[in-house]
């Protein structure tokens, strides 16, 4: 019973946005209002480099900072809210996709002047694929921005789902008067200033229309009119549709002024779902695999490693594995097992993440994120249990879009290079391919910055200096076939194109966009996968 009560009061979500839309500001305010931090400005330090840069310091900062605060837990209105950070730079988008597999809902922040921007669009796609419920926050209403009806229209088009405005702005920019809360039928009056608390804002019921009209003039009447239009044109609130990822509630506000933020935090608690059930493979002793459903309140502990990150501390070469708990309860001293290797885990410390600090976990339930240090042996996508033979699927790896060949400068450092590549591959910092025909290792990335980070880390963490040379490959596809025989025939036909990745999955390396089509015509029974799910 307590398990059920505990999981029901958990909310695990991520903020998705385009750089500069206001994610950092909003994160900080959410932490501030939940009492998780005392001082405004405390999150600012974690701000990562937002713009394309090859400056090592920036990269280091980004990594270091994201270790410290990539998960933030706060309690709010008797709920436990877990906020997962998504890396800001587009070159690390793969990391972001994986973080999104660990949340139950997303908060989309858009800049009211810019609408839905490119990076948000990519993240939306991932949420859509998983039917993740999305709450929309339209930020920066204190600026000269676009018409709110226009913004709703764009959100509907981009998200391909109806919007349901919950708050509505009165004016904008210099004439921003506040927001009307459609549910409470009242207006919250805007006041600029970053030291305001939600309870400091004046609230006037809409029934006092004359008073509001006298105070806000035309802006108020215009707002009522456009609100009516919006209500007429948009969907009625339907909680079930939201939970199924088919409708998004929309809020307006100004993050930097703490305005409209509490409404969003309340929405996370009131609207977004607690941890749900997940499907998993159950592996019997005989090796037979069956599908099973894991419920968050199940007694047995299970979770998935969705992120592995090297510690910034150069004196400790350990890494932190982040586990999203799917079921059961974690307690200190519990025996844990990695399904893939069937090895027992004996983490020296298991931590939870409280905005600015890590703390030893006392207990953690489904929806929570725990982290433990590892010296290897744990990979992204690994399922951790207290004994059951479960394997969750669904952690995505995307076919890289750019490749480089690794050339070691000092051949005596081969062992270090191999260890470094293996670990960085396990961490998902980059994809590592070992050509079956031998020769230099290949690196595959989604963003250019990943190469620079890996080259830098090989040197500083593994003392292996490498040169990265252009590669003839432009893409890769993981391949499978119904029978080993068919796969074998394919391997024989393309011996120079075969490679194995860090998880030992077989891939076909392509040099042109036509490669896959031609190979497919020749071998119709081979399946080419642009995405690999950890199995
Ligand atoms: P991020 O890149 O999405 O994390 O964005 P930040 O939170 O760092 O915000 C980007 C810039 O927009 C910063 O200079 C913020 O101070 C500013 N900003 C954030 N929210 C608001 C807002 O509501 N109004 C105005 N005028 N500026 C804002």
UniProtKB/TrEMBL annotation:
SUPFAM superfamilies: EF-G C-terminal domain-like (SSF54980), P-loop containing nucleoside triphosphate hydrolases (SSF52540), Translation proteins (SSF50447). InterPro entries: EF-G-like_DII, EFG_III/V, G_TR_CS, P-loop_NTPase, PrfC, RF3_C, RF3_dom_3_sf, RF3_GTP-bd. Belongs to the TRAFAC class translation factor GTPase superfamily. Classic translation factor GTPase family. PrfC subfamily. It is found in: Cytoplasm. GTP binds at residues 17-24, 85-89, 139-142. It comes from the Bacteria. This is Peptide chain release factor 3. PANTHER family: PEPTIDE CHAIN RELEASE FACTOR RF3. Residues 8-276 form the Tr-type G domain. It comes from Lampropedia puyangensis. GO terms for molecular function: GTP binding; GTPase activity; guanosine tetraphosphate binding; translation release factor activity, codon nonspecific; translation release factor activity, codon specific. Keywords: Cytoplasm, GTP-binding, Nucleotide-binding, Protein biosynthesis. Increases the formation of ribosomal termination complexes and stimulates activities of RF-1 and RF-2. It binds guanine nucleotides and has strong preference for UGA stop codons. It may interact directly with the ribosome. The stimulation of RF-1 and RF-2 is significantly reduced by GTP and GDP, but not by GMP. GO terms for biological process: regulation of translational termination. NCBIfam families: prfC, PRK00741.1, small_GTP. GO terms for cellular component: cytosol. PROSITE patterns: G_TR_1, G_TR_2.
